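Whiteboard transcription, Tuesday session. T.W. wrote the structure tokens on the left side:
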């Protein structure tokens, strides 16, 4: 084989090796960044899971804001409201001015329950 062919083989092998190691390093970096993000946001995700559990209770379609906030510590009222919006909840204000929340996915069930109560 001529020197040019060997040079070409060396360039191809070097390019493939560099590409493989770059891909490997980037995939490791991505996994690390993902894990760090989850660790940094673990408490917020826990709060969201708790809110979803409370709003999915089979007996209660609506929950008052003080009831939702009671088991959550370390977050302001506005932060809890932001979490409620992130999980797909909607705010409803009752005639007495109290703040209640329900999941949009349960809106039909909520309406049916309210109609059954009024009938």
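and on the right, the sequence the group agreed on:
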């Amino acid at each position: 084989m001529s020197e040019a062919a060997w040079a070409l083989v060396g360039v191809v092998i070097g390019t493939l090796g560099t590409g493989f190691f770059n891909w490997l390093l980037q995939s490791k970096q991505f996994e690390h960044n993902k894990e760090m993000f989850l660790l940094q946001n673990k408490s917020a995700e826990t709060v969201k899971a708790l809110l979803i559990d409370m709003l999915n209770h089979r007996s209660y379609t609506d929950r008052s804001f003080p009831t939702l906030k009671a088991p959550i510590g370390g977050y302001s009222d506005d932060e809890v409201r932001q979490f409620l919006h992130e999980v797909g909840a909607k705010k409803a204000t009752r005639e007495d001015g109290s703040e209640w929340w329900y999941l949009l996915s349960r809106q039909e069930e909520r309406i049916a329950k309210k109609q059954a109560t009024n009938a």
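Someone added at the bottom: The radius of gyration is 27 Å.
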